[in-house]
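Lab meeting notes turned into a lecture example. A postdoc, R.K., suggested we walk through two folding results consecutively so the class can see how the record format repeats. The first protein's sequence and structure tokens come next.
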Amino acid sequence: MKMKTYRIRKPKIVVVGGGTGLPVILKSLRNQSADITAVVTVADDGGSSGEIRESMNMTPPGDLRNVLVALSDMPQLYEDIFQYRFDKSDNYFANHAIGNLIIAAVSEMRGSTYEAIQLLSKMMHVDGHIYPSSERPLTLHAVFKDGTTAVGESSIAVDRKTIDHVFVTNTNDNEQPKAARKVVKAIEEADMIVLGPGSMFTSILPNLVIDEIGDAIINAEGEVVYICNIMTQKGETEHFTDADHVCVLHEHLNSKFVDTVLVNTENVPDDYMDPEIYDEYLVQVEHDFQKLRDEGCRVISTDFLKLRDGGVFHDGDKVVDELFRIVFGARY
């Protein structure tokens, strides 16, 4: 059998998720020689995104805005303007990011958020492809272990109940949610599919529980890599080990589809995190390497930690270095 090599071309890497974790990886990937596709959740219903989504009946722009910036080579001043958020005292515009308003305007002009993101990608010199996971706004539903339910991404963590599973529905009709154009093809052709880092139930799974996307990932020929969160998250993954994260992914798709897990082993200093800024993060995720292997995963554990501004993040450059070792066939 002929061995596959990627060195004669850029590896095709699809990154799936949302929230603040996805841009960290994308920024570092942009500095490497890769053919990047970002698949971004459209189930957010809070903050500026939620208000625009409700008033204009469009897919929420916030996560898409952050991904546009992460993959763009525009000057810092332009980025600062695009990311500027109006002051809380500014009445109608309070808390809205300028980039969200621009995406909303172009979406209205083009009749589609999907088309708006493609146009803005050209304007902002984006290095890669950005697709919303669905072309319609989705509503996220959570079913808790006690049998109760919650509707809407912003309401799921409020009561801090243990989540059994989540699913999505089209917000405006009863049709089955469908993947956006080119998303499935990108996954099928990828050399690697990267999940996370990000909130398990509200950033990663809302993409995977769209049947077409979940099936494409299960059947993907490329390596499926999960970047495990460093900290547990209030109302979502309290008391989770790294293996618990993977088990939830596998249970939702009823398949042991994750090939490799990246796990941070560097300790977060006690009392480092600023609870006033990062109040949703609780304690460092504990390790269960044997259970991860029982789930069929290769485990790569090392220092992926970056501390800044009173918060705990993945070091994008370290993560991407590891991703490239995997995609180029390095042996461990």
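The second example is placed directly after the first for contrast:
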Amino acid sequence: MPARPHQDTTADDPRTAETAPGTVRPGGRTARVREAVLQVAGDTLATEGFAALDLAEVARRAEVGKTTVYRRWGTPGALAADLLVEMAETSLPRADTGTLDGDLQANARLVVKTLTDPRQGALFRALIAASLCNDQAADALHRFYAVRIGEWAACVTDAVARGEVPAGTDADAVVAAVSAPLYYAMVNVGRPPVQADADRAAGAAAAAARAGVWA
């Protein structure tokens, strides 16, 4: 999915001195440069890890001027942060099945599908590892999850409106409870989650929400 529309420009660097990496949505040649660089950055993270994310090498592989990459992103952490911005923007929208159980199950299965995808799963592991040693990557990862949880929180607010769960239920907490055991399985246990894990996590979160655990 392409980046959001923006005024077309052929400049190598659309940022002002005050603009943080990843906050500009360029068009034209700049958008193509960003797409190429982020593709290479994602491939590098997935196959070699954050330590291998060298800006000069990324520029070479993306066939982009090294000066452009250094000027636009500046550090590997900023490049990883922009990659997470792009991933958040292009992620699938939340499900709307008409029931809390159905919505949370769809969310959980999407998490499992992502974490077990050969490229995406490796990419997330690399970004999680990067967040432990790089402040820019950590901040970006936190923003990524805030965006995704905010997207799926509507499943819970809709359930409140339908009377499925108590008023005042913390929607963000319910959604986080769905994905938490799935990430735990991958990161802490070292076992890729499967669909049965997804269904169990979704069912447990829905039952707890109905019981008023997060009300």
